[in-house]
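Before relying on records like the one below, remember that each one covers exactly one chain. Contacts with other chains, cofactors or solvent are not represented anywhere in the record.
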Amino acid sequence: MIKVLRQLREPGNLKILIFHSSWSLTLGSGLSYFFGLLRDRIFAHEFGLSRTLDIYNAAFVIPDMILGVLVGTALSAAFVPIFSKLYDEKKSLGFAYAHQMITWGLSLMVVASVIVGITLPYFAHYLVPGFSGADLDQYILLTRVLLISPILFTLSNSYGRILISVKEFFWWGLSPALYNIGIIIGVLFLVPKFGLVGLVMGTVFGVLLHLLNRFWPLRKKKYNFRNKIDFSFSPEIKETIKLMLPKILQYTMWFVMLMAFTSIASTLSEGSVAAYNYARNFMSLPVSLLGIAIAMAMYPTLSHDAGKGNFEKFRRDFKRNRFRSAVYTTLAAIALALLSKTVVGLLLGGGEFGQADIDLLASVLMVYCIAIPLESLMHAYHRAYYSLKNTVIPAFLHTTIIIFTIISAKSLVPIIGIYAIPVSFAGGLFVQINILAMVFPFVLKRRELSYPVDSTKSCES
C-alpha cells in the first residue's frame, strides 16, 4: 500500500491508475454492482414478486440469446487478439477490421431481430407456457421493443473491445453502471406515465448510455475513430468465423438452459420468474468476485507453465488455486445461505416486497448457494484445460451437462416446484466437475508427453 501511495505522487500515475489499470475495472465493477443492487431494490419496492416483473425478466431472454450467440462469440473468441495485432502494425489496419466486424455484426443483428420480431407471436407460447392472454401479449410487446437492445449492444460491445485493446479500461468498466442508471430512470420516471412499456424504454435508454460512453473516448484525437460501413470479407473476418465456431454451440446451449429455466418458472406461481432471477443475481456475486477472479488470475500463470513445459509447477499452481477457490467460495456460500433472509429483507424488503416474498426468495437463494463453489470450480477447471490447449472437452461436456440439467429441472418441478431450478443447476455442475477432474490427469499427462512437439501450435481459448 505504501508503495502504491508513493507511486501516486509521481506525475501522471494517478491518471494511469484511474483510467488504464486493473483498478479501473474493479471500480467499474463496484459501481455496476452498486447501481444493480439499487435497481433491484427499486424493482422490489415497486413490483414485488409479481407477474409484471416476471414478464419483464422473461422478455430479456431472446434478445440476450441473439446477441450472445451471433455476436458475443466473435467478440470473445477473436476480436481482441486480431485487432491488437493489426493495430500494433498500423492503426488504420486495426480500425479497418473493427469497421468490418461492426458492419457484419450490425447486419446480422438487424436481420435476426426483424425475423424474430415478426415471427414471435407464432412461438411465444412455447417459450413461456405459463403466460396467456394479456400476459402473453405484454411479453410479445416487451420482447419486440427489447430487440432494439442487441443491435445497440453490438455497437457498444465492439467499441468496448477496442477500448480494452488500447487499455482504456475506465470507459469499458463505467458502461454497465450507466446501463443500470438508465433502467432506474425508467422505473422512477417512465413507468408512472407509460406503464411496463416505460420500464423497457428506460432499459433501451440505459443501452444508449452504455453505447455513447464507449464511443465518445474513441472519437478523441488520440484515436480519431469514425464509423464506416465496410462489407469486406477479409482474411481476418474468415479467421474470426473460424475461431468463433467452437463457442457457438456452448453459448447456444447456455442460453437454451436460461430459456428453459424461464419457461419452467413461468408455469409456477406468480413471481417465480422474478424470484429465480433475483436468486441468480445474488449468488453470482461471490462467483464473480471470488471464483471467476481466481480462475482468470491463474489462467496466464498456468498457460506460461504449460508453454515452458514446467508441468510440475503447473500441478502445484493449479492445486493451490483450485483449493483457494473451493475454500473461499464455500465460506461465501455458507455465509450467504445463513444470512439469506437477512440479506434479502435488508436489501429488497419493503413496499410491494412483503414478508412472503422475502421468505420465498431467501429459500430459493439458500438452495442456489450450493452452486456457488461448484460454478467457481467449473471456471477453474475450464481455464486449466484451456491452458493445456484443450477446449473441446470442456465445451462438449458443458453442452451435454446442460441437456442433463434441463431434463432434470423439468422432471423435478412437479415435485419440488421452483427449487427444481437451483437443485438441477447444482447437480449438473457437480457431475461436470467430477468428470472434468477424472479426465484432467490424462489430458495433462498427454500434453506432458507430447511437449514440445505441439508447443508451437495455437488454439482458441
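The mean pLDDT is 85.
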